[in-house]
Amino acid sequence: MTRDDLDTLFASPAALLAAGPEVLADLPVVGGGAGREACAQAVAILDGAEVPRAEFASWLHFGAKVLGHDAYADLVAEAEPGMPWRTVWAWWRPVRVYRAKPNLSGDANVEVHEAPDGRLLLKLWSQWTRERWLDPATGEQVPAPVDGEFAERPYDAPVEGPVLFDPDDAHGLYQPDAWEEPVPLGGGRVMLFEPRGVVVLERNSAAADGPTGSEAVSWGTGGPWFTGPTAAEAPLDAARMEEAFDADGTVRLTQDRLPAALTHAPTRELAVTAGLPTWFAAGVATFTLAWNDGKAHGLEPDENGLLHLGTFELAYADTGRVLVHPETGAVSMVRNGQGPFPFARDTETFVRLLEAVYRFMSACWNPYPGECAERDFLSEVAALEPLSVNEESPAQDVWEHLFAAITELSPWGF
Fold first, then answer.
1. 240 CB contacts (<8 Å, ≥6 apart)?
2. A Pfam family matched by this chain, by name (predicted)?
3. Is 277 left (phi over 0), alpha (psi -120 to 50) or beta?
C-alpha cells in the first residue's frame, strides 16, 4: 500500500470500515494521519476482542474523541449511523499518551450534582487532581457553584437512562475491565470514570435493538500510532508546565525578578516564557523553588560560584540543595552538606525530569494492557539526563528515589 493509498483509506472512515480488519495488517510505518491515530487507539483498547463493524465504529469514534480529533469523529458517525453508542465527550488519557492530566489514580470520584430546576454538574476530585466542576453536556470546566445551588444526587436516586454493557445480555457490548457501572445522566446519556479519565457516552437507541449488520471479528492487536512528536521532543511551554504543576504551582518570572548574577540566557528564557515549578511532590519527597519570594534578584553565588535554585526535602533529615551555575546553567546538588555534584545538564533538563514524573504518573500506576509505561518512562529520563540512571553517580541515588514514587510505590505512597 502506497503512502497516498494509506492516507486516502484512513481519511475516510466509511472506506476503512468497509475494508474490514484485513486492511489493518502489515501497514507501512508512515502515513494515515488522524484517522490512523484514532484507529490504532480503538485496536489497542479492544486488544483483540471480537466486535462487529458497527461496534468497532463506536470505538473508532471514542479513539478520535479522546485524541481531540473531533472532526474525524463526526466523519465516523456519518459513516456508521448504526453504531450502538457514541462518545459525547471524554477527558481521558489515550493509550501510550503520557499526560499529567487526567490522573484519577488512588482515591477519586465523580459526583453528579443537581439543581432544583434539573440542571446537572459533575464534581470531579482525586488525590492527584484538583477539584473541578464539569458541564456534563460538553465536558467543559465551569466555576464551582455557590453553596446551596446544587446538591449531590443520592446514589440510589431513580434516573431513567440507557443500559450499556449489560452483562446479562447475550449480545452485550464489549466493556473494558476497568469500566465500572455507568452512571445515568438522563437524556440517553451515561457517565463512566476510572483512573484514566471520565467520559460521557450516548446510546444510539435506533441501533440498540437492530441487527449488527456483520459478525463479530477481531480488528487485530497492536500498539498506538502517532503522527506528531513525543512530549520529550516537544517544546516545554507555559501550557505544558501548568498542566503538570497547575497554574498555582508554576511561576513565570519577569527579567527583573531573576537573579541579576544569572547570565545563562536559556535559563532566563525558560523562567520567563515557560516558567518554573514552585512545588513538586513525589512519594515522600518535595521540592520548593527558591526564586518565588520576590528576593531572587539580589541572590549572590555561594562559595562554589553557584546560585540556589531550590531545595528538596527527600526524607526525614535528608535535604538536597539544588544549585545552578549562573553562566552555564548546569544544575548541581549539595546533599546533606556533601557536594556539589552534577545533577542535571541544565535547568530545562532538571524541570523536564520533574515534569516527566508527573506525566508518567497515571500510566505507571494504571497502565493499559500491553502498555509499558515504566519502561517508556525510564527510557525517556535516561535520554534526558544519563546521570539520572548512572548507578555510579550520586545524582542517580537522588533521581532513583524520586522515580521510585511512580515505578515502585502506589498512589498512596506504599
1. 231, 234, 274, 355
2. SUKH-4
3. beta
Taking the C-alpha atoms of residue 169 and residue 403, their distance in angstroms, rounded to an integer, is: 44
Q: Let me know how long the chain is.
A: 414
Confidence check: pLDDT of 381 > 60: yes
94: nearest Cα among 236, 223, 219, 229: 223
In sequence order, what DSSP letters do the residues of 366-400 get, joined into one string?
SPPTT--HHHHHHHHHHHH-GGGG-TTSHHHHHHH
Of the listed ranges 70-74, 172-176, 213-217, 347-351, the one predicted with least confidence: 213-217
Under a CB-based contact definition with an 8 Å cutoff, are residues 110 and 129 in contact? Answer: no
Long-range contacts formed by 324-330: CB under 8 A, 24+ apart: 324/262, 324/264, 324/267, 325/264, 326/259, 326/261, 326/262, 326/263, 326/264, 326/301, 327/263, 327/264, 328/264, 329/264, 329/266, 329/267
Instruction: Please tell me the number of Cα atoms within 13 Å of 190 on its side-chain side.
Output: 18
Q: Rounded to whole angstroms, what are the CA distances from 369 to 56, 193, 261, 310, 341?
A: 18, 17, 50, 38, 40
Rounded Cα gap, residues 59 and 133, in angstroms: 26
Strand 276-277 relative to strand 250-251, pairing: antiparallel
Question: Which uninterrupted H or E stretch holds 402?
Answer: helix 394-407
Q: Per the omega criterion (within 30 degrees of 0), is the bond before 340 cis?
A: yes
Q: Quick one: how far is CA 338 from the chain centroid?
A: 37
Q: Could you read off the pLDDT of 394-404 as tens digits, one per residue?
A: 999 999 999 99
In 3D, which of 182, 358, 190 has the Cα closest to residue 287? 358
Residue 320, classified by CB atoms within 10 Å of its CB into exposed (0-12), middle (13-18) or buried (19+), is buried
What's the Rg (C-alpha) of the chain? 24
Answer yes or no: are the C-beta atoms of 259 and 297 closer than 8 Å.
yes
Element (DSSP H or E) covering residue 265: helix 265-269
19: helix, strand or coil: helix
- pLDDT per residue as tens digits for the range 91-140: 999 999 999 999 999 999 999 999 999 899 999 999 888 899 999 999 99
What is the pTM for the complete model shown?
Answer: 0.92
Distance (Å, whole) CA 319 – CA 30: 48
Domain residues of the chain, as ranges? 3-218, 238-407
